[in-house]
Amino acid sequence: MTQVSEITDQGHTSRELPKQLRLGMGLTFAKMMLKNPGALRRFMVMGPDEERYVRPPREYEIPPFRERMRCCTSNEPYLRPTRWCNPREPEVIAMANELGAYELSDYEFAEAAYWFVKTKLVLEMLPLDSVSATLERGTGTCYHLTSLWIALCRAAGIKARYKTLIVTLPNEILNFETDEREAMTIDMFSRGVPEGEGEVCIDGKWVVGHVAMRAEIYARAGLPITKFGEDSIGLTLELIPGTIKRFESLPWRLGITTKALMLLAPAAMERANVVFAAEIPRGRNAIEEAGGIEAYDQNIRRQRELFSEEEIERKIKEAERPQFVEFKE
Amino acid sequence: MEASAEIEKRLIQLNEKLGRFIPPRNRWTPVDEAVYEPTDLYRVPIDEALEMQLKAIKYAFTRQHTYNRFYRAYCETRGVSPDDLKTNDDLEKIPLIPDVTFKARPSGKDFAYWITGIFTGDLPKIVIEGANPTFDDVINAFNAAGLVVTYSSGTSGRHSVIPRDMKTWRTFMYAAQKLRSCLFDNLADHYLSLSPKPTKTNLYYGKVGIFEAQMHKDQHYAMDFEISADLAQRAMTGKDRDGTAPKSAVEQLRKVFEKGINWLERYEKTTDTIFLRAPPVPFLAFMDTLEREGIRFEFDGRATVSTGGGWKTRENERLSSEDFRKRVQEMLGIPETRCIDQYGMVEMNAGGVTCPEGHYYHLPYTFFKPLVLDKSLTPTGYDEWGRFAFLDAIAGSYPGFIISGDEVRMLEHCPICDLPGPVLDKVIQRASSEEVRGCAEEVRRILELDLKGVKK
């Protein structure tokens, strides 16, 4: 059942995806199945020679929880526990305190928590579960990671909410060197993929954060690294217009979707996980070559100032001379 | 520095074959002067060359700025016009475009319109059959109208397409042959190519072999079948590309190599000179076949091996060019000094050629200005690693001021030979965020495809 916390600030529920998009995705999938029913097996079963996913070791320690640790207990919207995002779980409280809750300013804490999630946790396709489980594993989908950031902020008394959107991958990712498995993963996500961002309320203003993609993944594709306060839309991801929604709580439907995906296409999800894990060391090389995250990011942003593919495409389009081409039908 | 008598002799021989492509002197542009005037393009004194370079590149920039609406708008946004170019240093102000500019995104009619947007200068009327033309239909229609449109593909599946007018194409082809002649004896009697046949593909790596038809008597092409854009795309992005080649492809490759062996056997018994052109990896496979079959040749100084297209193997490792030359010496008896490699790309007209002594890539510098860019895409000095970019004056039909996806190190002079111009270090690699591209890889992957049904 839809709860009040699931109602978006545009006044509709998460189930109201643009019809055209839903149909488009469904049709694509149906066509693929009709054309090649064998593909279904590939979605479900890993080949005998395929590399299996091994979860990378967690990159941080979870500090021990102590009763005297401070935590927000307000039941106000955006501060209270919501589905798959309980800021009162001991591990979350302990981590929030470790990161400087109630010591740093709201902005400083939200930023510290942002970089913690963004640089220490790894993307992994999984069914939705609790933030403490995400913290224990050190991995999760964009929704897991966004939930963790939101939970840490709520634990520190900072209002936080979800922003969901449907995006396509940027040209930088669509173009990059791929092996077969990477190409399948990119193809799977290139048709439009649900993505999550978080927003935290600082001094009455909502500040956005996209924690779900590690710096190494950006670097692998030659993309800038989003900072706290910076939207991924237009910078690292391409928005499908009309798909942004904001919620206090993740809708139950997302839980069913992620469970269904794991059930129907476990092999495709595992392949995606292998790809995500493999991209990290490759991206790390690009960052190291540039002289660190900051230097890498500066360079890429300067390159974007010099030129953008969108600008070039637009200018070529404006220069077209169709009068020289005749089509004989 | 004067050209040696030997190079003068080679140039006379070259002009006997290709001289008709040189425009009459009274119609020479500054670009033509920089290509046709010097006898030895690699021994032009630096001061003299820089003067030619400034005139040629300024002429090319003015042309692009005047006749290419897309590029003019690009320059206007960056506030650069031809009046800003007064010295050689000013050439670095020329706005560079990334190589991704030439990645054709649209298909069908949109693709045809896209070519008109990227092309500089007047266009003939292009007539395309059918309401939904394929990629090849569009390219063939432009080529039928007198252009030379070629493409190269990468693992992203998007082709890089370059439309050349006939003047750009002929200048490019002549300059490429002349550059080779300035470094080694380029004019062999016969020609064996493990590359696509130029008349059966619009793939850049195949098409650039077209002038060889004017240069040699007996030409044999191992890849004598139609290579469509779809086939090239399948090779570069298809699911079979990382596995082992299918049985049919193995059999086909065996036949290709068998014909190559027969061809070599025919000329081993003569005193004729031969020229072998191939990407390194397939050529290495060819030599492995020779070894398996216990065949060795002794061509000595009357054969030349010309490679190009990159040195990456299927396993993404880098072949050693030194080991490759040793292998050529061992299996074909061709001395290492007669193994040359060329560096180029579909967007570039006449690239680097290795010198016989040091095997560094010598770049032309009268009509071409090579640049190495640092991480923030600012030109950096010699001896630094960075992104390769260039100002190519020969490109008259598209803006040839391009940032490539390759990482290189440029040296002011070759450390081994005495030529005065700049060289690229022996190792050239793709930047970490760039897709795999390279003609050698393209050819290898096509050879490993199941080609059943492909038009012979």
Q: What's the main sheet of chain B like?
A: 13 strands, mixed
Global outline of chain A: globular
Number of alpha- plus pi-helical segments of chain B: 14
Q: Number of helix segments of chain A?
A: 13
Straight-line distance between termini of chain B? 50 Å
Note the quaternary state here.
Answer: heterodimer
Question: Judging from the principal axes of the Cα atoms, what is the shape of chain B?
Answer: globular
Question: Based on DSSP secondary structure assignment, what is the total number of beta strands of chain A?
Answer: 8
Order of helices and strands of chain A: HHHHEHEHEHHEEHEEHHHHE
- Give the N-to-C terminal Cα separation of chain A: 55 Å
- Give the ordered list of helices and strands of chain B: HHHHEHEHEEHEHHEHHEHEHEEEEEEEEH
Round the Cα radius of gyration of chain B to an integer and report it. 21 Å
**How much helical structure, as a percent, in the residues of chain B?**
25-40%
Gyration radius from CA atoms of chain A, angstroms: 21 Å
Measured as a percent range, the helix fraction of chain A is: 40-55%
Which structural class fits the helix and strand makeup of chain B? Answer: alpha/beta
